[in-house]
Design a protein that fits this description.
The complex is a heterodimer of chains A (269) and B (271). Chain A is mainly α and 269 residues long. Chain A has seven helices and no strands. In chain A, helix 1 packs across helix 2 and helix 1 packs across helix 6. The termini of chain B are close together. Classes of the chains: A mainly alpha (269), B mainly alpha (271).
Chain lengths: 269, 271
């Protein structure tokens, strides 16, 4: 690894520790990382949307026209319309003409809403219902290799998925009072939902923990790179940067402890 | 009329898109693709509003002298740098005066922010002169330095090493760390909220514990726990998620219908 790359790696570790410092309390280092990531992320999405959205969807379509005709001699001149509508969005900057921005907004919402109805019915409702309506495997009801209720493809599991889904939907049906058989089905539905919420919670925690482990691994790897003498670009600057950074972090921690002790002694006096 | 025409447009385009889905004709599909491109283009133009709003909020924070207002410089300089990297790329081996150009433009942005934030006319004049000076110097560097160039309509900027470095060593570490920190907060919230008070709470607690311990090799009966957790994720959890997804789908369809028919009008604002 070259020294410049090592410096950027060090900066990555620095911003990681800055962000982690929020676990202690809100502090200037966290604020630095927070404001930096807001700006950099906004810039990143501007560039991605420009190069992967605006250029292929608008500029490439209009490029065979010319400025003199306002691209109206382009073979895809109709793409001037979304460009004009897009510009109308900027009418929000004006107090007198801000109402014009409703036109592109109306088109956007109208098209999106119209698109959502068949697509959501197809993807979220019909496909889920279709996947639920499978033929129950009665021959292997308690598992494929002997009695095994944890077999996810057994008839028992298939039946539980079907009954569980219907029960959970019944729980959300509030037009009928949850009493009698209907109430019992709804109760089973809430059981299934609670298990689902618990599993989703555990899964989310595990995902976050794995991210945390990855950040720690990167931080420890940085230490490994600093002292890797087999690196063909290795020089004394590598451990120099490591120790300087480590001393800086230790210095800040000591400063915080001293400030805390001073505040505490002032409070007790 | 300022409100009626937009509602009419929502109705016409909404109904058209619903029926278009069921017409398998090539012209219908062309219109579908065309309108899909429309909303992408309009959406990207709207991004400029967001960036302007970010600039305005940042300047206001400096102007009002709010605590931590000076961090707004970091936000806007970070934004500018990422955009600048995304539109430029080196043309040869070296970078020439590229980083000087980046610094000059950053100084110009900071001067502009100071200009908008200042209330004193003398200071305003000073910052206006400074921003013009930095801008002229940046333009001169951009004209006479041929070690790098602008690439507005081709994606060379996405391969700019600085763009990749900012993504790999600034954006990803901070975002990943921020998401990982949530583990601590949801764990502490769970410690306070999860109590086995009744059957439902116990089910939630047990399911969460089982899923969290499924990759733990040191607990007794690790294989059984892994199997049980796998079953939990693929059977009861699937049933719950499926019911929720069906509910979400029906909710979206209902809301979309309300919007198309003009029952839901909140999105249009007042005035």
């Amino acid at each position: 690894m070259e020294f410049t790359s090592f410096l950027w790696l060090t900066f990555g570790v620095f911003v990681t520790l800055c962000t982690m410092s929020f676990l202690y309390k809100d502090n200037p280092f966290y604020k630095f990382a927070e404001h930096l990531v807001v700006g950099v992320s906004a810039g990143y999405f501007v560039i991605i949307l420009w190069h992967q959205g605006l250029v292929p969807k608008l500029f490439e379509r209009l490029e065979d026209g010319d400025w003199y005709y306002g691209f109206l001699n382009s073979s895809h001149w109709e793409y001037i319309i979304p460009a004009i509508l897009g510009c109308l969005m900027w009418a929000r900057f004006s107090k007198n003409y801000s109402w014009l921005s409703r036109w592109p907004m109306a088109l956007y919402i109208g098209i999106s809403a119209g698109l959502a109805i068949p697509l959501e019915m197809s993807n979220k409702v019909n496909k889920q219902l279709h996947a639920m309506m499978v033929e129950i495997d009665w021959a292997n009801f308690f598992g494929h290799d002997g009695f095994n209720l944890l077999d996810v493809t057994s008839g028992f599991s298939q039946l539980l998925i079907m009954v569980g889904t219907i029960s959970a939907i019944v729980y959300f049906f509030f037009s009928k009072e949850h009493t009698g058989v209907f109430g019992r089905v709804a109760t089973f539905g809430i059981w299934i939902l609670m298990i689902g919420f618990g599993a989703s919670f555990g899964f989310t925690v595990m995902a976050r923990i794995s991210l945390f482990i990855n950040r720690l691994q990167d931080t420890f790897d940085w230490g490994g790179v600093a002292f890797d003498s087999t690196n063909q670009h290795y020089s004394g600057m590598f451990p120099g940067v490591f120790w300087a950074f480590t001393l800086f972090v230790i210095g800040y921690v000591v400063y915080e402890i001293v400030t805390y002790l001073k505040q505490r002694s002032a409070t007790t006096q | 009329m300022r409100r009626q025409i937009p509602f009419g447009l929502v109705f016409i385009f909404g109904i058209f898109m619903v029926f278009q889905f069921f017409v398998p004709h090539e012209k219908s599909e062309w219109v579908y693709e065309f309108l899909l491109d429309w909303i992408i283009v309009i959406g990207i133009f709207a991004l400029a509003l967001g960036i302007w709003s970010l600039f305005k909020v940042s300047v206001e924070k400096i102007k009002q002298g709010k605590e931590g207002g000076n961090y707004s410089y970091i936000t806007l300089v970070g934004l500018y740098m990422m955009v600048a990297f995304g539109f430029t790329q080196q043309t040869g081996e070296g970078w020439g005066l590229y980083f000087l150009w980046i610094m000059l433009c950053s100084a110009c942005i900071v001067s502009l922010m100071r200009l908008r934030a200042s209330t004193d006319s003398g200071k305003k004049r000073m910052w206006a002169l400074a921003s013009v000076g930095f801008l002229v110097a940046a333009v001169l560097v951009a004209i006479f330095d041929d070690a790098w160039a602008f690439f507005l309509y081709t994606p060379e900027g996405l391969e700019n090493s600085m763009f990749e470095i900012f993504f790999d060593h600034i954006m990803m570490p901070i975002l990943a760390t921020m998401f990982s920190l949530l583990a601590f907060y949801i764990a502490s919230a769970a410690y306070r909220a999860f109590r086995a008070r009744n059957v439902l709470a116990s089910l939630l607690l047990l399911a969460a514990l089982l899923v969290m311990s499924r990759f733990n090799p040191v607990i007794p009966g690790a294989e059984y726990v892994a199997n049980a957790s796998n079953w939990l994720m693929n059977v009861p959890n699937l049933a719950a998620q499926r019911a929720i997804v069906i509910g979400i789908g029906l909710g979206i369809v209902g809301t979309a219908l309300k919007i198309i028919l003009g029952i839901e009008r909140g999105y249009m604002g007042r005035g």
